[in-house]
Design a protein that fits this description.
By secondary structure, this protein is mainly alpha-helical. It has 14 helices and two strands; from the N terminus they run ααααααααααααββαα. A hairpin with a 4-residue loop joins strand 1 and strand 2.
């Protein structure tokens, strides 16, 4: 049984509780992701413009508050308490929708307000979580811990909309939101059951937010990542704003089928999430070099960090005498080289710095055992 359960989950009680709460909460979030738009369309007869406003109300807090929230949390500390508070507030806010619907008092304006406030609380939750994470797991377990949370997120993308659509069809869209409200209570309960040693707070000084903006602007990696993410999100949210309206009103798709369609589109994320280092090394060896007859042997763990990058990785070795089948999308060419030639080329032209570091650590490891 142990081989099917991550070592981090088995050995780290604090992280296991946080992961459990987040898994339940992420599942509830995906139910809301379909139930709130369906409430607007099916209950309040919202039009395309109103659906755009609804999506914007949920996203605007990220634009307005993310940088300031991060600076505030770093100075204040008490990240766990902040996360519990935001969970409880989000639970209460979502509960107002079925309550108002039960008394025939629900309006599109209430949905705007709830979406905006829930979005604001979500910003504070995740900036707190990002800095608390380092207190939950050891440095060597960062990748595995993040992978587990990514797996939960990917699974919620599949199961959440599917269950949400069924709940909307069996009940009513506003009542389906009760599930997400309860999921936030579970998350708050799990967080209340732990007491990790949090990272130290920063002194309140002027210019922290400006320094954050300057770092993003001057870092080519961060700037490119931000622009790429912003572009993807722009079109994803344009799609999200009108898809539910179009599918239900123009195509006549019922909520249950709509949830299954949205869930099916996220199946690929479940397949790719949660991959172990060893499995990833074996897969890359097969995909990029066409080597399947032998297994890579783990040598060492390493961390690389510079002004623009932070990498947690592992180095593997493999003894193989046979033909290579290079993956055209990843590798243009390959050749066998002596180490002297490799280091000469490194001095003459830029190479991937974490790869150079990994090679150096590997050679040091070999030297220490010979």
């Amino acid at each position: 049984m142990k081989r099917f359960v991550s070592r981090v989950l088995r050995e780290n009680l604090v992280f296991r509780r946080v992961w459990s709460g987040q898994t339940i909460s992420l599942f509830g979030d995906q139910i809301s992701l379909i139930a709130i738009p369906l409430t607007a369309v099916l209950v309040l007869d919202a039009n395309a413009k109103q659906m755009g406003y609804l999506v914007a109300a949920e996203l605007v807090p990220n634009l307005f508050f993310a940088l300031h929230a991060g600076a505030w949390v770093d100075r204040r500390g008490r990240r766990r308490q902040t996360m519990i508070f935001t969970d409880l507030v989000r639970a209460a806010l979502l509960a107002t929708i079925p309550f108002a619907y039960a008394f025939d008092a629900l309006t599109i304006q209430q949905l705007y307000v709830v979406a905006f406030l829930v979005g604001t609380m979500t910003v504070f939750f995740f900036v707190s979580y990002s800095s608390l994470f380092v207190a939950l797991v050891e440095r060597d377990d960062y990748v595995e811990g993040n992978s587990l949370l990514a797996g939960s997120r990917a699974f919620s993308f599949v199961a959440g909309p599917s269950v949400g659509g069924i709940l909307v069809q069996l009940l009513k869209a506003p009542y389906a939101l009760i599930v997400d409200s309860i999921s936030y209570l579970f998350s708050a309960g799990f967080l209340a059951s732990i007491d990790p040693v949090e990272p130290e707070t920063e002194e309140a000084e002027k210019g922290h937010v400006v320094a954050g903006v300057r770092y993003i602007v001057t870092s080519s990696v961060m700037r490119s990542s931000l622009l790429a993410t912003a572009t993807i999100n722009l079109f994803n949210f344009v799609f999200h704003a009108i898809f539910v309206l179009y599918a239900t009103r123009e195509l006549g798709v019922n909520p249950g089928l709509l949830g299954l369609i949205l869930g099916a589109g996220a199946v690929g994320g479940v397949v790719g999430a949660g991959e172990r280092y060893d499995d990833g090394a074996q897969r890359e060896l097969a995909e990029e070099l066409g080597i399947t007859a032998v297994a890579p042997r783990p040598i060492l763990k390493f961390q690389y960090e510079d002004a623009d990058n932070r990498v947690n990785g592992r180095v593997y070795s493999c003894s193989y005498d046979g033909p290579l089948k290079l993956q055209a999308e990843e590798i243009v060419d390959g050749e066998w080289l002596d180490l002297d030639v490799v280091f000469e080329r490194i001095r003459q032209a830029p190479f991937c710095p974490d790869g150079v570091e990994a090679l150096a650590r590997y050679l040091d490891k070999l030297a220490s055992v010979t």
